[in-house]
Amino acid sequence: MADNSTLAATDGTGHAASYAINAGDTAWVMICACLVFIMSPALGLFYAGLARAKNALSLMYLTVLSVAVVSFQWYLIGYSLTFSETGSNFIGDSTHFLLRGVGTKPAFEGQTIPASAFMIFQAMFAAITPALAFGSAAERMSLGPAILFIFIWTTLVYDVITNWVWASNGWLAKLGIMDYAGGIPVHISSGLGAFAYALVLGKRRDYHKNANAPHNVTFVFLGLALMWFGWFAFNAGSALAANARSVNSLVATHISACTAAIVWVLLDYLKTRKWSIIGLCTGAVAGLATITPGSGFVTPSSALAFGALGSLVCYIAIHYKHKMGIDDCLDVFGVHYVGGLVGLILTGIFAERAVIALGFPEGTPLDDIPIGGWLDGNWKQVPVQLAGIAAVSIWSFVVTYIILMVINQVPSLYLRLADEDEIVGTDWAEMGERAYGYLDYEEAEAVTPDNINGHTLDNSKKQNIHVARLKRLLMIDRSTVIRGAPDLVEAPVMDYGQQKDLGAYDLHSLKPPIPSPTNEVIIQNVQVNQIDDSNSLQHKPTLHHTSSNDDTIQVLSSANETPLGSSSNSAKSK
After folding, report:
1. DSSP string across 273-327
2. pLDDT category, 546, cuts 50, 70, 90?
3. Sign (positive/negative) of CA torsion 413, 415, 420, 422?
4. CATH 1.10.3430.10-classified regions of the chain
5. Is 472 exposed, middle or buried (0-12, 13-18, 19+ CB in 10 A)?
6. How far does Cα 541 stand from its chain's mean position?
7. pTM of the prediction?
8. 23-408 has CATH 1.10.3430.10 classification
9. Phi, psi of 440 (to 5 degrees)
10. Which run of H or of E encompasses 271?
């Protein structure tokens, strides 16, 4: 970002041209910062839809938490460590701690926007990056260490890598790396960070049964729509000016995303003979990630290759991830790391000086405009891109792994949920909240040594596994009981994608059977307290399902009940 479109051109005498703050450029960057912010909650919707219902809220929570924590870190030390003009080739210094000296003057020579506008735009980039990484750890990560992890990871991984690539004196910037809008700082770093997180946590306890069980495809669609919208600003705003290069970046971004979405849908159809909207959305994200490093270096025609090749390679990576033995729940590595890697290599091939020149003032001498990639005869550009990928990949993976292992040694900051909490779901066990208020809970299996799978971080041993009683979601809305047809009720949909028939089904086929002596009602002993509005809110109906054997299955729902299986109540469970 900082190497081509934002540095000053010369006036022909070797002196930097004079730049004044431009109101149009400033307004454009401010608007782009707001649009990039939208990408974080949009990512929350996207991730929540791909996960199961019992874990949806936690993923939304993490994306917004990332914005809050990273913005605070950026204000304290992050911006200074990343973009200090007086820093070393490896990391910035304390010049701009607490945003000292970040005001109305340009951030560095050649910009036409205030440093404060550049700062907030870059803050939104930093905010979404750790949120991307959480997708690989979904459905079994504890929320407790999240704040600490986000702060430390942003400081030691994102800030360091971004300084290498975009700071004026970063060593990769001096080497000549080409990364227009974040292929390395955002996608490579988050993809390897996600891989390390998944490796440390191990697989979900029911991984082989629920490897792919999106519960709300509508959320996925809405999340993709908002991310696509924000991605225009993510890439086009990286010109830091409302100029022709910014427009080229926007067009190339859109062409790549459209091409990738079409390719992915066709690949899905060839494999499954189904037209998948999940495939359409995933393909679009792959195309957006692939074009990110090259959007300001390549023509829209070259963007076709980015979208097609990025989609194909990401598709292969995702569908063969099981051979790696890593449970990357939401395919962060396969989409973002692989997409970023492909995009960086293709940038080294298709980058053109003619496109780079669009970001420079008219009359700038050709020798002052950086040369492109292989299309311009710059044969060393791809090796430079590969060197940058290798260095950042090693740093991101190793440092992330160390951070996670250290945090996991801190008492009460265990990275992985206890097994009973994982069965209950992160939302209820860790947050005490549910994405869908009409759902009830049913007492389920007792955890014994026989039904607990081993994990890399087995926190179940820290709990009394012989007496823990669990709850699992029973996705039945009482309003869907069909009056006059006592044997029918709408089917549960928690494990969306696994059930072949989502219509009504015979409750008598369930085990244990539910008796219906009068053949007029399905669920017996519904006690509704209607004393007043406040009591009705605090005391919800209690449903008793009695079986023919010695055990009784109860569906309990109470507004002030502490969720069984949570860390605060597990020891008290019987």
Report:
1. SS--HHHHHHHHHHHHHHHTTTTTTS-HHHHHHHHHHHHHHHHHHHHTGGGGT--
2. very low
3. positive
4. 23-408
5. middle
6. 37
7. 0.77
8. yes
9. -110, 175
10. helix 244-272
